[in-house]
Amino acid sequence: MDGESSTQELLAAAVCGSQDAWDLLVDRYGRLVWSIARSFRLSDADAADVCQTTWLRLVEKLSTITDPDRLAGWLATTARREAIRVLHKQDREAPVLDGADEVDEDERHDPEAQAIVQDEYRELWNAFAALSDRCRALLRVLAVYPMDSYAQVSQALGMAIGSIGPTRARCLDRLRAQLAAS
Amino acid sequence: MERNRSVGENVEDARLLAKLGVMFDHVDPVPDAVTAGARAAFAWRDFDAAVARLIESESLADAGVRANGEHRLLTFEAPGLTVAVEATEIHGARRLVGQMVPAGPDHVSLEIAHRADESVQAPVDHLGRFTLSSVPAGLVRLRCSLPDGTRVVTEWVDT
Fold first, then answer.
1. What are A35-93's pLDDT values in tens digits?
2. B38 contacts in chain A (CB < 8 Å)
3. Does residue A81 share a domain with residue A13?
């Protein structure tokens, strides 16, 4: 069993108690879960909690996940729900991903936007940080975990399936425009 | 059909997304502690236990009791068991007062997600009532055994 093993093999081995298989699942899907948590305005600690809860829920559900193709969508949906729950608890608003693409003034307070960025990536990072919540959420997830279909992306981000293609194209165009302007 | 095209089909778009992916890995990678927590979560597996789902969570924080701290009612349900828990937070300390219906388990364990090697136990009386004091913040769950031997764990909740 290694990084080349299929998700189905890893799920089956994990259900039989293999920590190694579980660790490989964490390696494979950890970036996706983190990217979802990061697309909400959560503190580092809250984003970490969202991930922890998501993985604990997967442990609970592991033996019932029979279709490996749905694992990415399940993890993303679970992480998203947890993030929204944390936001509700904080009496703050979740980004409305089906809303307008305007850049929010609160962007500056976003912990994601405050990361210390190495020079090599600063230009791209600044251009990305200048995008709307909706664009950032979509591009981040697509960038770290290429999904097979818009149906998966739709499920993961709670976006209408018909709007993903146009939104993706528009967000990438805006990113290019930001890069060109900088 | 346009909407069924594989994501990343446009070469230029795919290239830009790949650049973003590399950037995220450098600028905002998954923290080691998050990966360690995800791996450690596996220690909590108990595939044979029935999971009592949280079916209701009612916050009473706005019902005039804010002076006493946050106050929540949580209801969990598994086949054959309902657990109702009242969680109260006073000065940062949490207390859980609960009841199992039907009564039967003689004790309940509190499991704390970030402390994999210990659990706190409390007796359950003949009416199914129990009290757990000094519950830490963060994710916890309750565990008990029904008289027929079925193990039941609740969902993880942050009380």
1. 999 988 788 999 999 999 999 999 999 988 888 888 988 999 999 999 998 888 775 43
2. 26, 30, 33, 51-52, 55
3. yes
Same domain, A88 and A14: yes
Span B2-50, pLDDT tens digits? 444 445 458 889 899 999 999 999 889 999 999 999 999 999 999 899 9
Whether the Cβ atoms of residue B84 and residue B57 lie closer than 8 Å to each other: no
ipTM rounded to 2 decimals: 0.82
Distance from CA of B107 to the nearest CA of A (A): 22
CB–CB of A60/B51 below 8 Å? Answer: yes
**Quick check: is A45 in a domain?**
yes
- Do A31 and A63 belong together in one domain? yes
Residue B133, CA atoms < 13 Å, CB-side half-sphere = 1
Please indicate, yes or no, whether residues A13 and A87 belong to a single structural domain of this protein.
yes
Which tokens belong to A5? 């093993």
Give dist(CA B136, CA B102) in Å, integer: 27
Which of B36, B46, B76 shows the shortest CA–CA distance to A55? B36
| Contact residues on chain B for A49, CB-CB shorter than 8 A | 138-139, 158
**Single-letter amino acid, residue A29:** Y
Q: Helices A71-89 & A19-38, crossing angle to 10 degrees?
A: 50
Report the alpha-carbon distance of residue A103 to residue A127 in Å, rounded: 12
Task: At B131, give phi and psi (nearest 5°).
Answer: -135, 130
Q: Are strands B139-145 and B151-154 parallel, antiparallel or unpaired?
A: antiparallel
Residue A21 domain boundaries:
7-92
Beta carbons of B17 and B117 less than 8 angstroms apart: no
B15, B21, B25, B27: CA torsion to nearest 10:
90
